[in-house]
Amino acid sequence: MVTKDIYLFEEGKKDMGMLLGNKGAQLCEMTRVGIPVPPGFVITTKVCNEYAKTGKLPKRVKDNVLKHVKKIERKTGKKFGDARNPLLFSVRSGAPISMPGMMDTILNLGLNDKTVLGLAKQTNNEWFAYDSYRRFLQMFGNIVLDISKESFEDAINKQKKKEGVHLDQEISLDGMKELVKKFKKIADVPQDPSKQLFMAIGAVFSSWNSDRAKSYREFNRLPNDLGTGVNVQTMVFGNLGNDSGTGVVFTRNPATGEKKLYGEFLLNAQGEDIVAGTRTPKPVNTLKKVLPKAYKKLVQTTKRLEKHYKDVQDIEFTIEKGKLYILQTRTAKRTASAAVKIAVDMVKEGVISKKMAIMRIDPSTIEKLLHRQISDEVSYNVIATGLPASPGAATGKLSFDADDAEKRADAGEKVILVRSETSPDDVHGIVRSQGVLTLRGGVTSHAAVVSRGLGIPCVSGCNELDIDYKNKLLIGKGIKLGEEDTLTIDGTTGRVIPGGVPLVDPKISKEFAQLLKWADSFKKLKVMANADTPKDAKKAVEFGAEGIGLCRTEHMFMSQNRLPIVQEMILSKSKEERERALARLLPEQRKDFTELFKIMKGRKITIRLLDPPLHEFLPDVDEIQEDIRSIKKSGNKKALAEKEELLKKTIHLHEVNPMLGHRGIRLGLVYPEIYNMQVRAIMEAACNVKKRGTRVSVVIELPLVAEERELATMKDEIDKTAMEVQKKKGVKIPYHIGTMIELPRACLIADKISKYVDFISFGTNDLTQTTFGFSRDDAEDKFLHYYFTNKILEEDPFVVLDEVGVGELMKMAVKRAHAQKPGIEMIICGEHGGEPKSVHFCHHINLDGVSCSPYRVPIARLAAAQAAIGRKK
Amino acid sequence: MVTKDIYLFEEGKKDMGMLLGNKGAQLCEMTRVGIPVPPGFVITTKVCNEYAKTGKLPKRVKDNVLKHVKKIERKTGKKFGDARNPLLFSVRSGAPISMPGMMDTILNLGLNDKTVLGLAKQTNNEWFAYDSYRRFLQMFGNIVLDISKESFEDAINKQKKKEGVHLDQEISLDGMKELVKKFKKIADVPQDPSKQLFMAIGAVFSSWNSDRAKSYREFNRLPNDLGTGVNVQTMVFGNLGNDSGTGVVFTRNPATGEKKLYGEFLLNAQGEDIVAGTRTPKPVNTLKKVLPKAYKKLVQTTKRLEKHYKDVQDIEFTIEKGKLYILQTRTAKRTASAAVKIAVDMVKEGVISKKMAIMRIDPSTIEKLLHRQISDEVSYNVIATGLPASPGAATGKLSFDADDAEKRADAGEKVILVRSETSPDDVHGIVRSQGVLTLRGGVTSHAAVVSRGLGIPCVSGCNELDIDYKNKLLIGKGIKLGEEDTLTIDGTTGRVIPGGVPLVDPKISKEFAQLLKWADSFKKLKVMANADTPKDAKKAVEFGAEGIGLCRTEHMFMSQNRLPIVQEMILSKSKEERERALARLLPEQRKDFTELFKIMKGRKITIRLLDPPLHEFLPDVDEIQEDIRSIKKSGNKKALAEKEELLKKTIHLHEVNPMLGHRGIRLGLVYPEIYNMQVRAIMEAACNVKKRGTRVSVVIELPLVAEERELATMKDEIDKTAMEVQKKKGVKIPYHIGTMIELPRACLIADKISKYVDFISFGTNDLTQTTFGFSRDDAEDKFLHYYFTNKILEEDPFVVLDEVGVGELMKMAVKRAHAQKPGIEMIICGEHGGEPKSVHFCHHINLDGVSCSPYRVPIARLAAAQAAIGRKK
């Protein structure tokens, strides 16, 4: 396409951002559709690139600029450099992608010793004219000639002191004239308006390659040859009397989404006066009384803008002597709840389609709608900031260990569990706490993962604080909090606040519910939840989960009344002894599953058999050793022998790398009686529930497979037990066997694995660990933080699925599994299943579904719909 | 191909094993080339399959059998079932693949109440005839009619008791006749010879589907429809007097390879008499005197057999009344050293080609030629057997900790280090020990890997023994050994022997050297060694390594005099402090590299920068805590503070999964000063050595890369330091930067990685860990053992490269790296680099080289040659 160097605002349009810069393109668009925009023109980004090479503005461009100035003169009836009716310009940069670090605006360009007189006459306000001149000299001097701001400020301060006044506005007319003189000495600003204009344009282009702009681009990986456009626009003044003014309006309320003009204005003022905050602006609807005509025009114009852009607009306007000018319009920033309301309302108004409404909501922003928050209306004292590990805010008294937390919670107290880090031993305490605060570990630490799963707020890795366990104190800078003190944590922001703070409960608005319903009608991915408890399962159903994609049974082994039996089972010396302990766990497990089946009412439940290594259920070696020391003193020989046995077994079960140790299906193979008990419990529960008339659909899932013969062996065992139970109960249960792919090798042999299962779930937490060789327990503080800071990794692969590595293995697995068994169901579970970018990826590689924390189900539903509609990432 | 049901021995040949069974095919082959084989015929495996379906011998086959019996009658002049000159048969099974669990041999078939008289007349030996008849009844009864052996044995014993004799041979003729009568009552053996023959043939076919045979096939994954052949062969008798006999000979000495007929014979005896051991056989050469004609024929015939089969033969023969018959020939089993000598000799004799010689040696058997062995000529008492973790035998006094081992070794004592397991802390003790014995850990445990690398014998995982560290005792069943006792271990077999045992030093024979030279001329893979010390490097060169493919620098950090500096470095509170400690390590590192460069004389050395997590260099938490307890008593406050600081740091550095933790290039990135010191030391050493006239070729290798930006960053650092040193020294060193691929993600991004390096080495130990999700420290005792026993895995993936998973990732990586940078050098290092099957795989996926322990270099050279020559796996 042959392009011109310069475009009049009438000549461009909104999709010419690459050529004209974004700001320029929008000014053109508004002009084109008849919005009252002060006339002007844009010099293209191509000229910027030309300038970058030569460091000069070519004569051709200069001539062209002057030609366009003439056009603006004709349009406005004013003349550039004219002593009676001078045309003044603002000059602004504007790149294709919004980019801080580039040139500020120069206003009032065209003023000189002669034109200032014309401006005084035009506006009938000599003070105003000299003030404008002084401002121009100051801006030009600073921005174009690179003279420090202080030089000008000093002069102003001296003048104020001399006159004994405090504000710039109080400086006398003579004082202003004096300042103009002084400024002209400080900055050698040319009197020739054309020269001013060329120099200003050159300064904009130079600013494109300023160090600040370049390092910004490097940091954000933006190309250097985008270039910036230059917008040259006629000045309009809101400070020419009480028939003038300036303001900012939103076409709808950006906090609530209410459909009502929202904003403020100042009479007889320029935009910078609003920013400066020296005068208090008035609500925009009061303009109706003051300048009814202009207000009417404003309402009309903003409505047109919203309709034209099909979205809420954030609009800057100026009224010059009763005439309305729009200086800028842009899509308004809004709160998450406003975004949802606006999108849904606009569909109902027929402005946008359902698809557009869905595409317009950033799924990552809606998470906070699902959690309790600190009220916006209070201020508070933050003593430390950790990582936002599980969203939502919570208030409670401090508890320093899980048993204590459980006990006090049982007694009706609200507690925040505070630990340097948590382990599976602490889960019973986490469950009963309002929130969790840890000093170590990242957003994928144990505390973070468990809390997110449970929907409990958590701040992790808050290393600014210390814990004195002995005296039960949380110690920060100049602050010590004990068990009786109250603490508030905000897991959405990572803030830690001493004392209680008013919290606001979340509500799913009717618009939000509507939006999600629409989303469901578009999405291809099934959205399920990870839920281990009845509480989770209910939440999951409430948030629209279509089933449970991952039910981890290990948490069932952790509860205080079962742990002793589990430990007995682990410490058994024979298979028989182990089976006796398991027999006591069986009814408990059956109860768990019965409840889940009842809640899910026929929705599919994927139950993963025991996964973690057995030593996770045993106490710490240190703890046992301490026990032994104290028992030794008491002299109880039997107790001593028992503890010593426990110590021996614990040491024996200890693993150097438990993540890669004896867990998952490896456990099931070596101790088939454990899985056997679980399968029996599942099938018995299923039969009982079905007998009482509730449908049941269940997948029995085998974790951590690396080799297909593991599955072949285990599948036979499961089928045998399942058949036996069904036969005994006289009920048929439509159960399936599934497996998790959590290891690179499992991805490579997905075809072989598919022979044995009907269901595969990618456990991308572990798959990420093995693919990268990153232990998530160790990586975060030790080196991942360094990696993010130094951009070795751009995103945390434990949060956003790594498409290059992990994702490629998944793609391979999907292809191979589908080739072997076209109908096989494949989903993702774990952290990534509720992360929007990862959900998109899952859609694109043809997964059947995602499963995530109940609290992320709405996010996943939305993201899945967006993926189906085809949003580019 | 249309096949017949039955083949005369003259009609088949050696490559018809699938149809005739292996034994049958060889009998045919010998007959075909004119070797004197007793006449006979083979019923095919196809008939076996037919039989398996119907359970019957078809009439067609029966008729055909009788037709072939007639042919044999014509050939021998004897008649089947004839009362005067009876033809007798042996009936044997013979499958295409040698398979225990099938039918034994039935001899003397054709005997009945009439023909026994004929046999007596033929042989002029009535006792012999009845003994043969009684044996036939016994075999037929037991094998065909399934009557227990005991029934017959009982009768024999009664008869012997009655006659007051001890041996079967002493039973009187009447006694024999009596036994025949009794046996006929026990077993209803048909008198009709044809019926006998059909039943025997049916029994062979039935035995193909016996439970024993089926489970053998299942276990060995052999197809069920291979079927077995049946060999029906004329009986010959070696026990017809002093002009008869039987024996076994090898065409060359199977222990030494010496070219001389080797074997033994018994006059007037059947084969079973040799097996029974009741008479002592004579050396075969004494036959020359006794039966010179038969001996001459034997020498001629065996020579022809060797020439025909082009390999040493193991031959069974019988002489019946002066006439030589060959009953069986097969390729002789031989010792590794004999195999090498025979292969090389045969090339020189023009019997086989160099390629054939190379292909004939199983690389896995030659390992023992490279290590010291227990003398074959002594007997000894084995108290326990562990895993054969590092080959070779060693004798020494027991030492229970590494410091002690080092001290005593320095004082000139020979010690065996005995530990329940070893850690990097023990390396200085391992290095100075004769051998290592551990109670825990498998063949890929720390002790095993380090010992193999160092060529020190090691027995690991010997869990039959216990250690009492307090009293310094090794405790086994009924035995206690202390520091002053001597122990012998055999790392080739896993045996543990109390006391000293004579050992035999290894020697590389001239034939072995010759074979390896030939191998080098065929192989495509470069064979390098993993060597960290001057001792290793010398060994590597001696064994023909073309360079060092992996020099691990961490061992250099472990030596007793450096560890305190390393610890100081780790405990540094600032970068400056750390740099000060590193500055003290620099000259030590420089010394290490200088020596290596000198030894390798321009051969390429790949130096891997520090890999393990830093906490591996710190003492155990338990140890520090104990120190703290004892210091507390002494009241030394400064020492206490220091220890407490150490404890804090150690706990801070502790990792949950160190294998996936802060190690490798992650360490280099977070603490660039460590790698900087190492690069400086390497380059300074290289410059110094080159200045003194020795060529230097070096690859600086970065471990554990997961993301290309890790390399991009580190490469810049290294180049900067390398340039600086070269400039200062005024020397140019042709160095390259390389990396290790040890993670699945690195395989997937091998193309991106290749942009930054000229050399890639697959660290398949770690790659196997991450691909499978198996921690090698934990997997072996906890579940891998179970996996092997239950055939979930057929081979240990830490020993034999897993082609399905790890191998596929490697293939992918090779393809991608080559696409990006065709000339890039790619090798494998680590355990698999010296394992023959894995070497083949490396050849086939187009690697450039392998690197392995110096002691495995000859194995790798041979395996690489075999891969190039194109041996099927």
Note down, in words, how this protein is organized.
Two copies of one chain form a homodimer. Chain A is α/β, with parallel strands linked by helices and 873 residues long. Chain A contains 34 helices and 33 strands. An eight-stranded mixed β-sheet of chain A has the order 14-24-23-16-17-18-19-15, with helices on one face. In chain A, strand 21 (473-476) and strand 22 form a beta hairpin. The longest helix of chain A is centred in the C-terminal third of the chain and has 26 residues, at 575-600. At the A-B interface, helix 25, helix 27, helix 28, helix 30 and helix 31 of A face helix 26, helix 28, helix 29, helix 31 and helix 32 of B.
Question: What is the tally of beta strands of chain A?
Answer: 33
Shape of chain A: elongated
Fraction of residues in H or I helices of chain A:
40-55%
- Which structural category fits the helices and strands of chain A? alpha/beta
Biggest sheet details of chain A: 8 strands, mixed
Strand content of chain A: 15-25%
Cα-based radius of gyration of chain A, to the nearest Å: 34 Å
* Overall pLDDT of chain A: 92
User: Number of helical runs of chain A?
Assistant: 34
Question: First CA to last CA of chain A: what distance?
Answer: 28 Å
Low-pLDDT segments, ≥5 res of chain A: none
Strand order of the largest sheet of chain A: 14-24-23-16-17-18-19-15
How would you describe the oligomerization state of the chains in this entry?
Answer: homodimer
The most extensive contact between chains is:
A-B, 49 and 48 residues
